[in-house]
Write a structure and sequence with these properties.
The complex is a heterodimer of chains A (about 525) and B (about 325). In chain A, strand 4 and strand 5 form a beta hairpin. Chain A is built from 20 helices and 17 strands. In chain A, strands 1, 8, 9, 10, 11, 12, 13, 14, 15, 16 and 17 form an 11-stranded mixed beta sheet that branches. In chain A, strands 4-5-7-6 form a 4-stranded antiparallel beta sheet. Chain A has a two-stranded antiparallel sheet with strand order 2-3. In chain A, about 35% of the residues lie in helices and about 20% in strands. By secondary structure, chain A is α+β, with helices and mostly antiparallel strands. Chain B has a domain of about 200 residues: Orthogonal Bundle (MetI-like fold). In chain B, about 40% of the residues are buried. Classes of the chains: A alpha+beta (about 525), B mainly alpha (about 325). At the A-B interface, helix 1, strand 10 and helix 9 of A face helix 5, helix 7, helix 9 and helix 12 of B.
């Protein structure tokens, strides 16, 4: 018995002498919780991180790129496109000479097949096509057409602004699969779905070589990629479910990127000179919303008083530990139409004066609803304290998220702290949610039945001229700031801890949530 | 009762236990108000798509028919198809279970060696330093959560000292040995890949120790108590008084007789090792059945959760059966 004990002890000593190597120069090793990975099929994958891995495997008609800090759709294998007079039909000219990873040429037939595939499969991730473009299983053959070997057209149900249409088409469900390879692996009419779950048949910069669930995902550079070869030959994602373990591996140099650190862990890891933090704007926001038909809040001056009572900086610094951006408009930083102005700050005298003008010199009592996360609770307490300075007594009510949303959707709240995540990088989605009661989203929930704002939202959706469009959203934001039912608290940020040897990670990550370009990262 | 009858009776009991477990997992999975079809298709899915998937997965059938299908499938080792991985659950289990089994086997080996050693030493040197150490070690072992002790040891042995690797079954750039049993330690020996064997051993030490810590503590305490009990018996006094050497008295006379409670506890803790694997596998990024079941739960992948749970119950029952058989061999009175 003692001998076995000694043996184990000896083994430990042997390792002490061997040590561990750093990651290879041509490989990026990412530590992440991959429990959310379900499938690598571009027509089906929907979760944020899995989608970005899938994006590295497939080329699309158009893809997203951050240009001068704004996320815009750019040509991928669609070299150019024409929009019909009525703004309904988009005709895409496909780049010639593009090959799939196995060397097969990519033609309009593959594009046509790939665009129809999510519709025929009724994939949830293609809800944009059904709910927004009105393309479904029954009309898909009229709406999506193959014109010739290198031309494909798509017909929409309304003349959406180009940025909206292309923004939606840059979602992953339009990833182009190799029709022949996929059909070779078809089982029971699944259009190759089962096989594509853990194989790739695309024309993107990388190829999926291995996916062992809960263990490792390995991508290798696609030798037949039509663009420039990516600087890193391999991307390896190791399943490290524990964030604290990710931090240890990162600091020891066993991984290059820790994907799911908490703000606290990132703060600690940053003290190591080999570790760098990367932060980019996210695609969600956090807001305080007011029911515009409830008691004192029906008066726009009261809502303005609330906006001047809150100390926004302290929320970003103390509660979010600076992992948030002070953005007070509804259009996110990094989007077309983003308004840089933040008109609100804490000014208690001004707030009191506004309340007095509105006929509430002694303030009033209001219910402040939110859900039971630590962040939301802290925000509610902070806002409660700020409002108290102006004489408004807020009573905090904490609910389970599902209960809270049920009450919110039924317009049953007075004040609420909640957030909104965006689906495509265009102000349309955000304007409709926050400013048009006709869209039945946030503006409606807060009973802000403002026809001027709703009409501006609808103009913005179909205005073809980008300059005019930008002006519409600027005007809308300006109006919404002072009349709307919101006090926008902040925009979320995405963050990672990386080794200092990793280069261009921030460029690759800018826009994360919507995009992540692995082909830009180098070491 | 002869040994054959005893064995038959135990096998029959085992089947009843497994049937009970099957009932419990099936009904828990099917009566809780969560909708796996909704989870797969999402809230925007059209009702026809929901109905079609329900029919495909058999969720449109009455509960009792589904239960019948589940049981008849389970008897044939067919737990259906995982909603998340789209593989037959049994195939996934075959894939993931060896990692868990390997971890549990190394953990129980470490626990037995360490636990019995500590138990004997603290009984023989009662109330001396080693006994006090063993007591503190055991109290910590049963009271500290696996999660916490795992991170703590990683911090010391991986992060600060760099003696042991920090995650997974092998280095990130090492290929696993050709698959025979799926257990890397055994497969690497079969393939004669000694470097891989060494690497696998180093990777398993920390998680196995952490997983087995609780078991080590229990074994140490039980061995100590039963050893003290035996040391007080008349035949030990006789052995001592007839002038046998101390070591002979302790190891030949006392130890053998004090092992029965230890064997019982080993059988019981083996079950807790399979359970504890769920947490240990998360902390140490160990791609085993525990992690398969947890990720399945988050996705409402009921076939995977039910199949995985039932499989662990089966292994637990087999471990207990083996213990009972050992027991019967060690002490014929138990066959009654």
């Amino acid at each position: 018995m003692k001998r076995s004990f000694m043996l184990i002890f000896l083994m430990v000593l042997i390792v002490a002498a061997t040590g561990f190597a750093a990651t290879p120069k041509d490989t990026l090793v990412i530590g992440a919780n991959t429990g959310i990975f379900i499938t690598m099929d571009p027509a089906v994958a929907y979760e944020v991180f899995p989608n970005k891995i899938v994006a590295a495997l497939y080329a699309q008609l158009v893809k997203l790129e951050a240009i001068d800090g704004v996320i815009v759709p750019v040509p991928d294998i669609a070299e150019s496109w024409e929009i019909s007079e009525d703004g309904l039909t988009y005709t895409f000219n496909i780049r010639k000479g593009v090959k799939f990873s196995n060397g097969d040429p990519l033609t309009a037939e593959d594009v046509f097949f790939s665009l129809k595939r999510p519709v025929v499969l009724e994939s949830v991730s293609a809800w944009f096509l059904v709910d927004i473009f009105g393309i479904n299983k029954d009309n898909v053959d009229e709406k999506i057409k193959m014109i010739d070997d290198y031309t494909v057209s798509i017909t929409l149900n309304a003349p959406y602004a180009e940025n909206i249409t292309l923004g939606i088409l840059s979602n992953m469900f339009t990833g182009i699969v190799n029709k022949d390879v996929v059909l070779d692996h078809e089982v029971d009419g699944d259009l190759g779905g089962a096989w594509l779950t853990d194989h790739s048949a695309g024309a993107g910069p990388y190829v999926l070589v291995q996916w062992e669930r809960n263990n490792v995902i390995l991508l290798e550079a696609n030798p037949n990629y039509y663009g420039e070869q990516p600087p890193l030959k391999r991307i390896m994602v190791r399943d490290i479910p524990e964030a604290s373990n990710q931090r240890l591996l990162l600091e020891r140099g066993d991984i290059d990127v820790a994907w799911d650190l908490t703000p606290q862990l990132l703060e600690e890891a940053k003290r190591n000179p080999d570790i760098v933090e990367v932060k980019v704007p996210g695609h969600s926001n956090e807001y305080l919303a007011m029911n515009a038909t409830w008691g004192p809040l029906a008066n726009p001056k009261v809502r303005e008083a609330v906006r001047f009572s809150i100390n926004y900086e302290e929320i970003v610094e103390d509660i979010m530990l600076n992992n948030a951006l002070l953005v007070q408009g509804f259009i996110n930083k990094g989007y077309f139409g983003y308004v840089e102005e933040n008109p609100f700050y804490q000014d208690i005298e001004k707030a009191k004066a506004l309340l007095a003008e509105a006929g509430y010199p002694d303030g009033f009592e209001v219910e402040l609803l939110t859900s039971n996360t630590d962040t939301r609770k802290a925000e509610a307490e902070k806002i409660q304290a700020d409002l108290a300075l102006a004489g408004i007594k807020a009573n905090i009510v904490i609910m389970q998220s599902s209960q809270m949303y049920a009450k919110y959707r039924a317009q049953g709240h007075q004040m609420i702290i909640a957030g909104w995540g965006n689906d495509y990088p265009d102000p349309d989605n955000l304007a409709m949610a926050h400013a048009s009661y006709r869209a039945n989203q946030l503006a409606w929930r807060n009973a802000w039945y403002d026809d001027y704002a709703a009409t501006l939202c609808e103009w913005g959706q179909i205005e073809p001229n980008p300059d005019k469009r930008e002006q519409i959203y600027k005007d809308l934001t300006e109006y919404w700031f002072h009349n709307g039912p919101f006090a926008m608290l902040y925009q979320t940020v995405e963050f990672w801890g990386i080794r200092k040897e990793v280069k261009n990670f921030e460029e690759a990550a800018f826009g994360y949530g919507m995009l992540f370009d692995f082909a830009k990262v180098s070491k | 009762m002869n040994f054959g009858q005893f064995l038959l009776r135990r096998l029959f009991l085992m089947i009843i236990v497994l049937f009970g477990v099957a009932c419990i997992v099936f009904f828990i999975a099917n009566v809780i108000p969560a909708d796996p079809v909704g989870a797969i298709l999402g809230g925007n899915a059209p009702p026809e798509a929901v109905d079609r998937l329900k029919a495909k997965l058999g969720y449109d059938q009455p509960l009792i028919i589904r239960f019948g299908n589940f049981i008849t499938g389970a008897v044939r080792g067919d737990f259906g198809v995982s909603l998340k991985t789209s593989n037959p659950v049994m195939e996934d289990i075959k894939n993931y279970f060896p990692a868990t089994m390997e971890l549990a086997l190394v953990a129980i080996t470490i626990s037995i060696i360490l636990g019995i050693t500590l138990g004997i030493l603290s009984a023989v040197h009662r109330n001396k330093a080693i006994d006090q150490f063993s007591r503190i070690f055991s109290i910590l072992g049963v009271s500290m959560p696996v999660f916490w002790i795992g991170l703590l040891l990683l911090l010391v042995f991986y992060f600060k000292l760099g003696w042991l690797p920090g995650s997974g079954r092998l280095g990130f750039f090492t290929y696993p040995p050709p698959r025979v049993t799926g257990m890397y330690l055994i497969d690497s020996i079969i393939a004669g890949q000694w470097d891989t064997f060494k690497e696998a051993l180093l990777h398993i030490l920390l998680p196995a120790f952490v997983l087995g810590y609780n078991a080590t503590a229990s074994i140490a305490r039980i061995t100590r108590a039963s050893m003290l009990d035996v040391l007080r018996q008349d035949f030990i006094r006789t052995a001592k008084s007839k002038g046998l050497r101390k070591n002979v008295v302790i190891y030949r006379h006392a130890l053998r007789n004090s092992l029965i409670p230890t064997v019982t506890i080993i059988g019981l803790v083996f079950g807790s090792l399979l359970e504890g694997a769920v947490l240990t596998e998360t902390v140490f990024s160990w791609p085993g059945l525990g992690r398969y079941i947890t990720t399945g739960m988050l996705f409402l992948d009921y076939p995977a959760v039910m199949g995985g749970t039932l499989y662990i119950a089966l292994i637990y029952s087999i471990a207990n059966l083996i213990v009972d058989i050992l027991y019967a061999l060690l002490d014929p009175r138990m066959r009654m």
